[in-house]
Amino acid sequence: MAGTDPIHQFVIYDIFELFTLGGDGTEGSGTTFAFTNSALFMVLTVATITLFLLLTTSGKKLVPTRAQLTSELLYEFVAGMVRSSAGTAGMKFFPLVFSLFTFIFAANMFGMVPYFFTVTSHIIVTFALSMLVFLTVIIYGFVKNGPKFLKLFVPAGVPGYILPIVTPIEVISFLSRPISLSVRLFGNILAGHITLKVFTGFAVMMIAGLGAFGWAAAILPMLMAIALTGLEFLVGAVQAYVFAVLTCMYLNDAIHPSH
């Protein structure tokens, strides 16, 4: 069942228990903290990014190698994104945007490897990343601008008699940012992986159930699965980019709330 079930790939299970809080000592009582397959792939993602950057930038040659050039292009790509969306002042947030982009991109790419786990297919992970951005915007916005940060909810040039209508809309739109940011990433990754699993599972069932005829009948779903695999790689990269760009735009609101 697990082989063809499109939902089985998203199941989180414990690899080993860390510790238990509370309870009376009997099995199942208290709150157990465990190292899960999701945690494993998050650690693997961070470790891979760190190792890649360390290995490709350790030499710092005047004439860069291909590996060093890849890191430099990645740096310039994210730096250009930050400057274009949040201005030069936004470069203080470059480490945050760079970390988010590389983590989401690497996690999405790992998710395309057979039998690997896709951490961004779980709403709790994407929501945590979104809340990190949301709280950063709020905290920095008030620290830098004080009460003037609230100008964000009063668009410039709007007549005063319309403000009682516009301001609540702006507030609701602002508060919904972590939801839209997390659901967009989670939904695209989840839907894509389910669709891919359905087509590949359908092809496998046809081959197993129809024998030689099944091989011929499975050609179409297999071709669809190949096309969807390429599309999923593209979606994984695009979603990392979209998350990073929106992060820059939200940070720009904290830096320039009156714009």
Question: Can you put this structure into words, describing what you see?
Answer:
The chain has 259 residues and is mainly α. It has one domain. Helix content is 67%, strand content 5%. It contains seven helices and two strands. It has helices at 37-57, 66-86, 94-110, 123-145, 163-175, 177-217, 219-255; strands at 14-21, 31-36. It has a two-stranded antiparallel ribbon. The protein is globular. The model has no long low-confidence stretch (mean pLDDT 87).
Given as residue ranges, the uncertain stretches (5+ residues, pLDDT < 50) are none
Q: Profile the largest sheet.
A: 2 strands, antiparallel
**Number of structural units classed as domains:** 1
Supply the helix-strand structural class: mainly alpha
DSSP summary: helix tally: 7
Strand adjacency order, main sheet: 1-2
Order of helices and strands: EEHHHHHHH
Q: How far do the termini sit from each other?
A: 55 Å
Shape: globular
- Averaging pLDDT over every residue, what do you get? 87
Helix content range of the residues, please?
55-70%
Rg, please? 23 Å
Q: What proportion strand?
A: 5-15%
Number of DSSP-assigned strands: 2
Pfam families: ATP-synt_A
Family: Belongs to the ATPase A chain family.
Keywords: ATP synthesis, Cell membrane, CF(0), Hydrogen ion transport, Ion transport, Membrane, Transmembrane, Transmembrane helix, Transport
Function: Key component of the proton channel; it plays a direct role in the translocation of protons across the membrane.
